[in-house]
């Protein structure tokens, strides 16, 4: 007799089903980890953009800019680069709307990043810390003339950390990424 028995066919189908299930689960886990890594890279890129604009003296468009920075907001789950045009509240602080439009800081074009759940349903800003102290918003800026770093308009804090979390990933070991910005050295790190 040639051919396969019913038992052999059922065993082969079961093996194929198990392998498919394992590979799909692995693919989803890698996809969630990739979306978290991409979000962390985008956050670090915003800081590098602000740093590069301050180093290059990017003043063609923003001639009255005093510094370039990044505003981070945990509540709205977003961040964006800005040109600090209005220094009444201190160098390196985001001033959204002032009474006089000429005294309003400028959000840099095509730069806003949102880690909003409606766009990427898995990545959120879990925590923002300044020297280990949790905050809901933070501004980090580089002054044009001296390239000095400012955290919330001052030079007293040393480290800003943004912790991103993948809310869909249940593996605790791989569901966060931390972006650390050192005020004094300007170093920007991503902890995987």
Walk me through the structure.
The chain is of the alpha+beta class. Helices cover 27% and strands 30% of the residues. The chain is built from one helix and eleven strands; from the N terminus they run H-E-E-E-E-E-E-E-E-E-E-E. Strands 1, 2, 3, 4, 7 and 8 form a six-stranded antiparallel β-sheet that branches. Strands 6-5-9-10-11 form a five-stranded antiparallel β-sheet, with helices on one face. The longest helix is centred in the N-terminal third of the chain and has 51 residues, at 6-56.
Entry keywords:
single chain, minor pseudopilin epsh fold, 192 residues, elongated, 5-stranded antiparallel sheet, 1 helix
Largest sheet: 6 strands, antiparallel
- Spell out the CATH superfamily: minor pseudopilin epsh domain
Rg over alpha carbons:
23 Å
Number of domains: 1
Based on secondary structure, the structural category is alpha+beta
Q: What name does the CATH topology carry?
A: minor pseudopilin epsh fold
């Amino acid at each position: 007799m040639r051919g396969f028995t019913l038992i052999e066919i059922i065993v082969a189908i079961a093996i194929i089903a198990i392998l498919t299930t394992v590979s799909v689960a692995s693919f989803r886990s890698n996809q969630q980890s990739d979306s978290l890594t991409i979000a962390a890279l985008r956050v670090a890129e915003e800081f590098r953009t602000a740093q590069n604009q301050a180093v290059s003296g990017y003043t063609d468009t923003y001639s009255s800019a005093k510094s370039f920075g990044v505003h981070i907001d945990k509540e709205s789950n977003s961040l964006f680069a800005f040109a600090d045009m209005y220094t009444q509240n201190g160098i390196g602080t985001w001033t959204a709307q002032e009474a006089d439009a000429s005294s309003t800081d400028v959000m840099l074009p095509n730069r806003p990043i949102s880690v909003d759940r409606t766009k990427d349903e898995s990545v959120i800003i879990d925590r923002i810390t300044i020297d280990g102290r949790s905050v809901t918003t933070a501004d980090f800026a580089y002054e044009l003339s001296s390239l000095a770093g400012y955290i919330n308009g001052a030079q007293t804090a040393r480290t800003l950390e943004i912790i991103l979390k993948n809310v869909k990933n249940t593996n605790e070991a791989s569901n966060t990424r931390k972006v650390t910005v050192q005020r004094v050295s300007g170093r920007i790190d991503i902890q995987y």
